[in-house]
Amino acid sequence: MSFNLRLGIIVTSILLLFIIFIILKKGRMPIKYSLIWFFSSILILLVGLTPQIFINFSKKLGFVTMSNMVVGIFIIILLLITISLTVIVSGQKKKTTLLIQEISLLKEKVNKNEK
Amino acid sequence: MSKDSKNKKVLLIIPAYNEEANILKTVNTIKDYNKKNNTNYDILVINDGSKDNTSNICHNNNIKTIDLVHNLGIGGAVQSGYKYAYYNNYDIAVQFDGDGQHDVNYVKNIIDPIIDNKADFVIGSRFIKKQKDNFQSTTARRIGINMISFFMRIVSHKKIYDTTSGFRACNKQIIENFANDYPLEYPEPISTVELIKKGYKVCEVPVKMNDREGGTSSIKSWKNLYYMINVILSILIIGTRRYK
After folding, report:
1. Shortest CB distance from B84 goes to which of A93, A103, A105?
2. A104–B67: do the CB atoms touch at under 8 Å?
3. Residue B162 in contact with residue B203, Cβ under 8 Å?
4. Beta pairing class for B202-206 and B121-125
5. Residue in B70, B72, B80 closest to A105 by CB
6. Which ipTM was obtained for this model?
7. What stretches in chain B show pLDDT beneath 70?
8. Residue B65: its chain A contacts at CB < 8 A?
9. Angstroms from B70 CA to nearest CA on chain A
10. Strand pairing partners for B13?
11. Between A and B, how many CB-CB pairs are < 8 A?
12. Residues of A with CB below 8 A from B79's CB?
């Protein structure tokens, strides 16, 4: 693997870790949702630092090139993240609905009492 | 009508979204019916965040109305009605459309089985008896309804003819059930399957429906395959659940 590519990978992963850190520091994401991003960034970092291990591993698994394996792994990770996000959003929708209903019922009651 | 029916508290839940053209007429028809037949059906309009004059019309005419602070869609709107029925201790809740499709003269027919303890949940059905003069919706829609009916039968072992009818009545137990949990998407067929799976007695009685006088159906286009796929998948998933 060329030196430039390795450098690019290392810089990208450190940038990613930094972005996640800043987001966490500002309190815009809870730790539990950031874990998967942390692990993903560290995995990218490892690819940059020790490519040989990954090259050997990908050959054993039958990938033609290591990059195919890395891309494949990340697509799977992204899919899992998207699924979990859908679950989170659906939960939010349920709670919003509940709030809208209860507030509207309360409002009707309050208005009736005021009259 | 059985003797104790007068003692039952009955609530008509009327979901309304941009129904300024029909809502007053619908409510007045019910009020007239109450006077003529000495019945006491309470009316509750759920204004689902309408952008037109629905809310003003209701309040100016002293119609009991809950204005949802944001649009929720038919499922969330109707559930608000069930919550109201639950908090206010109603015995029977009837879903009734605000667009003039449903005929108040049939309310008695659909609540009678509940009063007589013959059913927990009654669906006002367009298709149970063949009537030529009856508004039965378009061919495409009927094919869709029959397909949903087919899958519901597979899952629940019960034939429901009019799977998407919004003219339904339920008893106290189901009011509580719906107040706590009601499907937000495709509520009619899905809630029916859930009730049958939970072991409630569900039955259909024939009703006549009018062609809608204004407003648009919550089911916009039956040609839209998306709706069918969603409903059928939902029904099949419910089939895999274990209740009780």
Report:
1. A105
2. yes
3. no
4. parallel
5. B80
6. 0.79
7. 1-6, 129-137, 212-224, 244
8. 108
9. 7
10. B44, B95
11. 36
12. 97, 101
pLDDT bin (cut points 50, 70, 90) of residue A67 is confident
How, if at all, do strands B65-67 and B92-95 pair?
Answer: unpaired
Q: Which of A86, A95, A100, A102 to mutate to test the interface with B (most CBs of B within 10 A)?
A: A100
What residues are paired with B67 via a beta bridge?
A: B47
3-state secondary structure chain B: CCHHHHHCCEEEEEEECCCCCCHHHHHHHHHHHHHHHCCCEEEEEEECCCCCCHHHHHHHCCCCEEECCCCCCHHHHHHHHHHHHHHCCCCEEEECCCCCCCCHHHHHHHHHHHHCCCCCEEEEECCCCCCCCCCCCCHHHHHHHHHHHHHHHHHHCCCCCCCCCCCEEECHHHHHHHHHCCCCCCHHHHHHHHHHHCCCCEEEEECCCCCCCCCCCCCCCCCCHHHHHHHHHHHHHHHHCCCC
Chain A: give the shortest CA distance to residue B55, in Å.
12
The contact set of A with B (CB < 8 A) is: 93-94, 97, 100-105, 107-108
CATH of B3-240, one of 3.30.930.10, 3.90.550.10, 3.40.50.720, 3.90.76.10: 3.90.550.10
pLDDT value of position B229: 87
**Residue B87, amino acid:** Y
